[in-house]
Amino acid sequence: MRKSFLLLFLAFGLMLSFVGCQDEDSDPILTLSSKTAQISADGGTYSVDVTSNVEYYVNSKVDWITVGEPIDNNGVKTYTLTIAENTSFNQRTGRVTFISHEKVTPQAFDLTQAAIVFNGVKAEFVTIKPAGTSASFKIEGDKAWTASVDNDHFALSPTSGTGDTEVTVTCPANTLPDAVTGIVTIKIGKTTDRVTLIHSGNLLGVLTDWALNDLTDKTGATWVDDAPQTTVGNNDKYVAPSTGKGSIEYYNSDKSAYPVVSGQASCQRLVGETGDPYCKGTIVGDYWLVTAESPNFEIPAGAEISYAFCANIASATSCKWLLEFKDGTEWKPAQTLTTITETATATTSGTAVTYSKAVSYNIDMPGAYTAFSGSFKTSKTMNSIVLRFRPVGALTNAGLLVDNISSSTSSRFSARNPVLSPKKYDQHVTITIVSVP
Question: How remote is the C-alpha of 194 from its chain's centroid?
Answer without folding.
Answer: 19
